[in-house]
């Protein structure tokens, strides 16, 4: 783990001085490193589950999805649309009033933009509009500025402008043009605006609900100081639109705080490719430093490679030197390239069909197609393959929709060992999978198993999610219920036994 000793001494700009004071209250400080730029360091120890930092977004916007959400609290019930611009929804007058100062200018701009343009607004364009309007409101002191909520922090964010491809820059310029047409702000140039789109691309966070379903996007300029690791010591979760970073490991004083920017299930090469494409850096975290070493080659082949043809062997295959096929590193059995290609082509066409069918909401047909994919993947891939894991995740989702609880439980249990392999022992997705398993077992009357699964879910999720949200209170209540039922059953059995 990185320590303070290597960090450069900093002469901070005034805005960072204010921030320094605010962060000191959390037990944090900002430093810089030659390879990663700014970073967040712990100035005290943090225990697993402890909140490292929490922050309201500078700006945020819900997703354009079929589930509508309140623009302020992101709840999805009792919603009413803004009657003037017809864009944001609010769950009641409290949220609407709290948002009004910021929405007022946005509302006028959106009404002025006309219905056609308004109907085609993407969340990213709205986020940018809100960014400029909030800057204007803070500059004019219509809304307050704080150490953790001011535009100067946005100015400090990395943008990677010099590394962005021409095609992407043209796209940003077009988006910037649209923002300028809507806002008509004289002091914002297309270049500055495009630069801000680039900042959003590497700094904005996808806001997720407690079950990690994406519900919106937000810019959290202090949380954005946290760098990435594929084996992070903390996790970023959201409570409504509040970003909450919690320690998942013990973090000692002087250590850098890391979160993961990406889904870490995958080979080192896949993770590095995603990070390079989306965040424009080459990760050198302890996991990535193993690239090319025997263990890493083996794990990558298991997660994304092919299965040994010899059914009783669970060895991993790598491409042989004449490139005609793949050779098992355990039993030496060779698998022909053409045979692999044929299955891969069939799988690709079935997978395309399955995702189209699922997207159309035809769960019954989607279920049949995914069930045809599963044995083919088992023939081609290793039993711990990521593709197989995705197929089973889809089947679980579909069977839940179809209310086939027995089928869903079967897949939930099949997914668990895959998650245990690809995720660390404290990971929200692993905790959530135990929770689903426990709920299904409880529903199907498997009380003892439900108690075990719910206990495992609580052990993980109390660290990643804390214990204060409605979601966690619900889980803790279910665990108590399962405990009481199991104790009652035991007492009844003991009583029968003693008769
Ligand atoms: C959200 S920002 C993190 C804060 C950033 N270091 C800064 O100076 O503002 C994301 C950017 O930080 C850098 N970064 C984050 N994690 C990194 C890592 N593990 N190695 C190298 N650069 C990293 C990359 O430039 C990335 O695009």
Automatic annotation (TrEMBL):
GO terms for cellular component: nucleus. Pfam families: SET, zf-MYND. One of its GO terms (molecular function) is zinc ion binding. Keywords: Metal-binding, Zinc, Zinc-finger. Residues 70-107 form the MYND-type domain. The keyword Zinc applies. InterPro entries: H3K4_H4K5_MeTrfase, SET_dom, SET_dom_sf, TPR-like_helical_dom_sf, Znf_MYND. Residues 26-262 form the SET domain. The keyword Metal-binding applies. PANTHER family: EG:BACR7C10.4 PROTEIN (PTHR12197:SF251), HISTONE-LYSINE N-METHYLTRANSFERASE SMYD (PTHR12197). This is Histone-lysine N-methyltransferase ASHR1.
